[in-house]
């Protein structure tokens, strides 16, 4: 069964088109890792002081959460452009639930997210039908949200609509 809300792909579905991402990173043996990507400012991934880090950046898990909302924002923009969907600012809050026993080595407890909840507040005057079309296509195309879902994580992205 086809979903009539899904738009046509913007790439040839029969021609594989691989791209590659790369970065470098350095760690001195502590919790702080400095990540370099292209010619952007370095990203510091760290833990809070009370967990042995220097508190100079988000934790690895917080970095994944930031990647999730950042990816959603980029895909929202790309799909909105295709649909000629008008919107303004988008704000996100993201909460994650993790059983830390997994990272402590307890067998049978996964060391990653149990549940991730995102509240996405988008400003638009578009109709509910067009909002649903945007939502369906963002959900289908977002690499990070699909990666998290495919890992069996209970991921909820709640769309909150506010007028422009």
CATH superfamily of the largest domain: K homology (KH) domain
CATH architecture label of the largest domain: 2-Layer Sandwich
Order of secondary-structure elements: EEEHEEHHE
**Rg calc:** 19 Å
Strand order of the largest sheet: 1-2-3
Count of individual helical segments: 3
Decide which structural class fits the backbone.
alpha+beta
The global form is: globular
Distance between the termini: 35 Å
Instruction: Please give the CATH class of the largest domain.
Output: Alpha Beta
Task: Give a verbal description of the structure.
Helices cover 28% and strands 24% of the residues. The two termini are 35 Å apart. The protein has 164 residues and is an alpha+beta fold. The model has no long low-confidence stretch (mean pLDDT 96). The strands form 2 sheets. Strands 1-2-3 form a 3-stranded antiparallel β-sheet, with no helix packed on it. The protein has 2 domains: 23-57, no CATH class; 58-162, K homology (KH) domain (GMP Synthetase, Chain A, domain 3), CATH 3.30.300.20. Strand 2 and strand 3 form a beta hairpin.
């Amino acid at each position: 069964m086809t979903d009539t809300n899904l738009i046509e792909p913007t790439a040839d579905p029969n021609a594989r088109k691989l791209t590659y991402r790369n970065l470098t990173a350095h760690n001195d043996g502590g919790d702080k890792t400095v990540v370099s990507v292209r010619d952007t400012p370095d990203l510091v991934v760290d833990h809070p002081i009370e967990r042995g880090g220097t508190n100079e950046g988000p934790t690895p898990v917080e970095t994944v959460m930031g990647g999730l909302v950042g990816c959603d924002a980029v895909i929202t923009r790309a799909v909105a452009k295709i649909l000629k969907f008008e919107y303004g600012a988008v704000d996100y809050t993201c909460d994650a639930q993790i059983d830390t026993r997994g990272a402590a080595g307890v067998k049978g407890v996964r060391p990653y997210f149990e549940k991730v909840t995102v509240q996405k507040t988008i400003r638009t005057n578009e109709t509910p039908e067009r909002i649903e079309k945007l939502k369906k296509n963002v959900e289908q195309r977002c690499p990070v949200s699909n990666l998290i879902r495919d890992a069996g994580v209970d991921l909820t992205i709640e769309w909150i609509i506010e007028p422009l």
